[in-house]
From TrEMBL:
Protein name (record): S-adenosyl methyltransferase
InterPro entries for this protein: SAM-dependent_MTases_sf, SAM_dep_MeTrfase_SAV2177_type
Pfam families according to UniProt: Methyltransf_19
Keyword Disulfide bond: no
Keyword entries, A-Z: Methyltransferase, Transferase
Gene Ontology MF, one: methyltransferase activity
Length: 258
């Protein structure tokens, strides 16, 4: 078992802390609090990203009839994980989680609960090995049937933009026509305070996360049919009645593979 270092902050645990989860240490809380002192809006961004994920899964299940999900770069389990949202609506849903972070692996048992009718699996593989990801997913999913690929706040960890686009293309290449991409990422051009805080965080020696201009996030969906309203700030994507729709520096969308 890989040793987990609790003396240095870890981005998955900091994110977990902002989401109100319990899988974090004092060092993560300190780093999270230092970030929120500079930019309090980060908690809204973390929770809005999570809420977008839930709404996109509900749309996929209820409107698109999707019953298979491939969640790559899963992160730490919190509330309303992909399988919980999907199986609540369609108990027969099948979910494969992929994350090669030893910390996530240590908590993966929380992701492996499933309805009797459905299935969940966890594959400790890197995003940088898309063909291996698809091959492993095929053990649990029927890859002749439409599958939703979920990339939630993971591509910002890929520094090279062309490489990030290539990874998305290669993952989608392994999925059949009628599959979907649900993607949301930190964005530039909406909130200068967020950009300043994230750029400063990236200089601390922690694992960097790169915010991208909205047109670069849109380009991840190249060749796909975007579900209305396209790529937008996440609070504006199919908002719940009465929910705030102020734009934030997190953009996402849902696209269908023709």
């Amino acid at each position: 078992m890989t040793q987990i270092d609790t003396s240095v902050p870890h981005s998955a645990r900091i994110w977990n802390y902002w989401l109100g989860g319990k899988d974090n240490y004092p060092v993560d809380e300190a780093a999270g609090d230092a970030y929120t002192a500079v930019f309090p809006g980060i908690v809204t961004i973390a929770r809005s990203s999570r809420a977008f994920l839930g709404r996109s899964i509900r749309h996929l299940v209820q409107e698109a009839g999707v019953r298979q999900f491939l969640d790559v770069g899963t992160g730490l389990p919190t509330v309303d994980n992909t399988h919980e949202v999907a199986q609540r609506l369609a108990p027969e849903s099948r979910i494969v989680y992929v994350d090669n972070d030893p910390l996530v692996l240590a908590h993966a048992r929380a992701l492996l609960t499933s309805t009797p009718e459905g299935a969940t699996a966890y594959e400790p593989i890197s995003l940088h090995e898309p063909e291996r990801v698809i091959e492993a997913a095929g053990k649990t999913l029927d890859l002749t049937r439409p599958t939703a690929l979920i990339l939630s706040g993971i591509l910002g960890h890929v520094a090279d933009y062309d490489e990030a686009r290539d990874l998305v293309r290669r993952l989608l290449a392994g999925l059949p026509s009628g599959s979907y991409l649900s993607l949301n990422e930190g964005s530039r051009g909406t909130d200068p305070a967020y950009e300043q805080a994230q750029d400063a965080y990236n200089e601390t020696g922690a694992v960097p996360y790169h915010l991208r201009p909205v047109e670069q996030i849109e380009a991840f969906f190249e060749g796909l049919e975007l579900v209305e309203p396209g790529v937008v700030s996440v609070p504006r994507w199919h908002p719940e009645p009465g929910a705030p729709t102020e734009p934030i520096g997190q953009h996402g969308g849902l696209g269908r593979k023709p």
